[in-house]
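Review this fold:
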Amino acid sequence: MSKRLKDGVLVAFFAIWIAGLFLLGIIMPDKDISFSERRKLSKFPEISAESLSTGKFMSAFETYSADQFPFRESFRKLKAIGEYYVFNQSDSNGIYLSGGFAAKLDYPLDEESIDYAAGRINFIYDSFLKDRAKGVYLSVIPDKNYFLKDTGAPTLDYGRLVALMREKTDFAEYIDIFPSLELEDYYRTDTHWRIEKIAGAADTLAKGLGTEISEKYEVKPVDTEFYGVLCGQSSLPMKAEKMYYISSPEIDNAAVLNAETGKYQGVYDFEKADGTDPYEIYLSGPRSLMTIENPASDGGTLIIFRDSFGSSVAPYLIGSYKKIILVDTRYLAAPMLPRFVDFDGADVLFLYSTMILNSSETMT
């Protein structure tokens, strides 16, 4: 076979292959969600004179085409494996592996973001807490990169971050949980910490708040195999992890009012174990306002301003309070708080991860 004929056959093969993918893209129904990436996928953009003339249609169509490309997940995995294992890139889609742990690069320190986060906390303090709350506290949760500083990957200046937050929120008593944590307290495939591993950090928080956690709890397994968000975002092959929850009579009998549904539920929402993010079993995941009521306690009220990390540490504190209110100002605008929360005589804890503080534009 001549070289010219070989080239012709090769070109024809790729033309048929591309045409086949194109036809599949037309025939196959669009997917709503990427379960591995835990996000909604783009839909076919609306066609209008304005969108065509401004170029918005083509821009949206490019995003749609990439999201709905046939066998997209397989191609993502193949690309990630090639980049990481064949071409020895240090990361895949901004995620790197070290000692079996996946971590997402978060660098550099964004001091403007820290300033904004502190500003939102100051607004809440000045508007609702000053001369009303019993005590005001601040604690920062380190992300996994803090424990991987020796890998050579760029990391935040954590000391500077904490110092800035303490300086800008000097009305709050700082509770340092960094020494109570270690790398093994976090999931290998996810950004979050493991509920069964953070008793030490929870106890440090409790003592900082002037109380203590109960030692009478059981660690129980969740019937699911957990692939964390970093596994999906990187597309690298990783092993599933086991999930657990903690149980005690006070936790099991607590009633949780979900302000978004107006209904009471349990501390754990086990139906979420089969959803896109099993971590949402802890207090139903991202929610604007959740109130935990413990009828067996004669303690007071604790209000926690938090991100998703707070969902899995709150169960440890149930035994110490009659009521725990968890507020996420990413979903509930701070000026609206007096309509839903009574701050008089309550302890208030601002508990945020370094990931949120270094990217705080979602705090309202």
